[in-house]
Amino acid sequence: MDYQLLTAPCGKDCFNCPLCMVEENRENREAFFKRNNIPEDKFQCKGCRPNNGFCPGLEILGIDPNCRMYACIQEKKVNFCFECDEFPCERLQPVADRAERVPHALKIYNLCMIQKMGVEKWATEHSKRLFTEYYTRKLNSMM
What we know:
Blueprint: H1 26-35, H2 56-60, H3 68-76, H4 107-117, H5 119-136
Helix pairs in contact: 4-5
């Protein structure tokens, strides 16, 4: 799997997203569509980078699907937000809106881990556990 290609510039792990058409996510993808009552065949995302910053997952949630962060990294000619002189910027600020359904609050943490570990090591050793724990781990278990 090409983790560089399937990791968004903001640190979102597209390869773990239930909307991304990666066969390893088949079970998560089916559960996501069933839980949200969305016809599965309607959305086939290939990831942020191959879609040039278009995210159908955001469109499903009623959010502008054209990613401003993707446009920004294109303009600044960097691969990841952490490579920018302005990192971290307000575009990466976590918000509570839909945080229980959309793991975008993980972006800065993911970017820091990618910077520290490299995208391949982060993707294979860290991201899946983090993505799963985002929805299940309790705050008191971290302290």
